[in-house]
């Protein structure tokens, strides 16, 4: 089976290409940016280019996108061209060439304002039944692309699975307030409780999605580390998160104290990956308990794959606020 990977110079695209090549599976990486994992350089917004690279392809993993950090540096039209037109071009070419599985990488950012409850409300439990309330052009275009996938399954019978990934990038947080309040490793460890995954687990889910797409047809799935929390914790999590973590992950305090770390005082949302585990057969390894075990052994909690890829950034230049420009 020949697999086309878009966005092969990015975090996930490179991770997929590294994995597929290591497994000896035929794969072609495409991206605007040349890289060791990019076989064909070009734009997915160019229909002729997409038609050429789709020849002989059996499965598509579409990771190429403009991300949230690009909102401040790219126009809304740029987002439409890449995230919507690019996806449409790929879907049309995939349907025309008889592709048997189309896996689209979406984002939990698409939930938008649904992720932040009112100040006096419990934390939000985010699963696939929550209706997104987009708050920027990034979320709007990712949701539009998801619906194109649904449409192509409905009308062209193209098997399409949408994977809404939580954070897995290694770059510092895009919030200056969080960067100033927590060291980066502490911040990321905390996020494994409710909104982060390791790129190795994300890759594993995408490869499972290729296998399951023909049987499932169409589906949307949240990809995030398995949370130790339950719905019963939501009210307390919002204002007293450390108490909930102590109850759900007994003994974490000693390792955090040894490092001078702390849990966030409150957590506003929790991602539930149950459906992905049930329907894709996904078994994520890198959760908060795994992170703690690695930290206790003074080892890097990231997967070897994540360590090999490292940070890439999102822009060619630097800004006064570090990696991220300020959005107007």
Task: Please write out the topology.
Elements: E1 3-6, H1 11-22, E2 27-31, E3 40-41, H2 47-54, E4 59-62, H3 76-96, E5 101-107, E6 124-126, H4 137-156, E7 160-165, H5 176-181, H6 184-191, H7 199-216, E8 218-223, H8 234-248, H9 252-259, E9 269-271, H10 274-280, H11 288-296, H12 304-309
Parallel strand pairs: 1-2, 1-4, 2-3, 4-5, 5-7, 6-9, 7-8
Helix pairs in contact: 1-7, 2-3, 3-4
Describe this protein's structure:
The chain has helices spanning 11-22, 47-54, 76-96, 137-156, 176-181, 184-191, 199-216, 234-248, 252-259, 274-280, 288-296, 304-309; strands at residues 3-6, 27-31, 40-41, 59-62, 101-107, 124-126, 160-165, 218-223, 269-271. The protein is an alpha/beta fold. It is globular and about 55 Å long. β4 (59-62), α3 (76-96) and β5 (101-107) form a beta-alpha-beta unit. 42% of the residues lie in helices and 12% in strands. The relative contact order is 0.14. The N and C termini lie far apart (45 Å). The model has no long low-confidence stretch (mean pLDDT 94). The protein has one domain (3-309): NAD(P)-binding Rossmann-like Domain (Rossmann fold, 3-Layer(aba) Sandwich), CATH 3.40.50.720. It is built from twelve helices and nine strands. A seven-stranded parallel sheet has the order 3-2-1-4-5-7-8, with helices on both faces. Residues 3-212 form the NAD-dependent epimerase/dehydratase domain. GO terms for molecular function: UDP-glucose 4-epimerase activity.
